Amino acid sequence: MNAMPSWNIHTAHVERILREEDASHLGIRDANAFLFGNVLPDVYVGYMVSPITKKIEYRETHLAEPGFIPSPDFMGFWRRFGIPSADGDGHVSDVVLGAWCHLMTDSVYNARTREFIGARGIPAGEETRVRKQGDFDLFGKTLDISLRLSVTDDLVRACSAFPQYSVAEPDVRGAVRVEDDIVEKNMSAHVSGSPSYSLLTPEFFSSTFDETHGLVVSYLRRYVAGEWAR
């Protein structure tokens, strides 16, 4: 499987948003649903949650062709599933907002990884993929996360109504269990300091983490400002 930001990284980005920003100014009304949206695109790909009631191809869940380092089309997702309807209240579901942020995060990390590898003439292939994935996993363990998901009636309804594809309640519950396990493992196996990475660097992860945060916040502010109203 392609190296993508893992759920501990996605969770850390959500926690930073909730810690440093006024969530209401970013259109976030339900932090629990927003966090779930930030892991939702991976639920039906088939490598994070098992068992699942169905499997959906990566090219559909992430709007990207699978490849060594794919490029999720986060604005394509927004145009199809996110822009508030003219007859609505001007808001979209927090699950939709979270899924949009997931695709933004994947897009930035993957773009910077492509640039890093290309600038150093590192060949694509299985060895590079394994080293890259190991670095992503290691970086994820350096992050302090504690936010937990809760299976609520509101979350189940929002997931059922997710406009790209409906998410069944058993799969919501399965994803919540996986996320809870990831948070537990991050707390018990936390990596302190600046580790030695196999392929990437501490500076790569620091700058990419900051860039991703800035991009997500800026796009959420544009959503609140109504820049994409029909």
Quick description:
By secondary structure, the chain is mostly helical.
Characterization of this structure:
The chain has 230 residues and is an all-alpha fold. The protein has one domain (7-224). 55% of the residues lie in helices and 0% in strands. The protein has helices at residues 7-20, 31-37, 58-61, 74-82, 94-119, 126-141, 153-160, 169-188, 202-224. The longest helix has 26 residues, at 94-119.
Furnish the topology, listing elements before pairings.
Layout: H1 7-20, H2 31-37, H3 58-61, H4 74-82, H5 94-119, H6 126-141, H7 153-160, H8 169-188, H9 202-224
Distinctive features:
230 residues; mainly alpha
Q: Termini, distance in Å?
A: 37 Å
Backbone structural class? mainly alpha
As residue ranges, the low-confidence spans are none
Q: What is the percent of helical residues?
A: 55-70%
So how many helices? 9
- Characterize the main sheet: none
Overall pLDDT, averaged?
93
Label the overall shape: globular
Q: Kindly state the number of beta strands.
A: 0
- Provide the β-strand percentage band: under 5%
CA-based gyration radius: 17 Å
- Please write the string of helix (H) and strand (E) elements: HHHHHHHHH
Domain tally: 1
